[in-house]
Amino acid sequence: MSSSTSPPEPSAGARLPEPAGEHVAAAVLAPLFIGGDAGEPHLVLTRRRADLRRHAGEISFPGGRRDEGDRDLADTALREAEEEIGLPRAQVNVLGELPPVSTFVTNYLIHPYVATIPAGIAWELSPLEVEEVLELPLEAVREGRGRTRLERRGISFQTDTYTVGENMIWGATARIIEHLLQRLEQDREGRLSLMG
User: Fold this and answer.
1) H-only helix segments in the chain
2) All residues at 6 or more sequence positions from 196 whose CB lies less than 8 Å from its CB, including other chains
3) Domain contains 87
4) Which residue, 3, 96, 149, 185, could crosslink 171 as a Cys pair with Cβ 3.0–4.6 Å?
5) 82-106 pLDDT, tens digit each
6) pTM score of the predicted model
7) Is 194 part of any domain?
8) 48 vs 171: CA distance, rounded Å
């Protein structure tokens, strides 16, 4: 599920087309693990392949459209994470759901599910979709919050971003991260949970 699908804020005089039709149900998984010397939370994201037709090279959570065989949207998120990065369902502990985020370009309504996973998983990337898996310290993500001017499809706009090193996250993925940072808690023993 691409990060580039937030409604941009157009520059003066620019007009954006209206999205058509009903939203398409989709889900993403926001996996977290405790790692590093300090035992800090890390967020798992993917970088899409650079040669894809849509949203090439962008950073996103593993996820996608709901399939007929999915029991519910949580099942969609788990299936997609297994397909895209080889994350075994048996190693995923779903903590809860964040508010849905709609996309502009693709007209999805994305349901984000937050989960904890063990550290040190050997990722198995889908050769058709994923270029790499990013394991970013959550505090570095938080500190990398900013606002950037981007241009897409000839439209210039300001948007919220999270930048860690060379990795810039924006759009729907940035909005999901904002919700995650507002609701995630870590207790004294290092356990993660969602408020509310």
Assistant:
1) 73-85, 138-143, 171-183
2) 183
3) yes
4) 3
5) 999 999 999 999 999 999 999 877 7
6) 0.85
7) no
8) 14
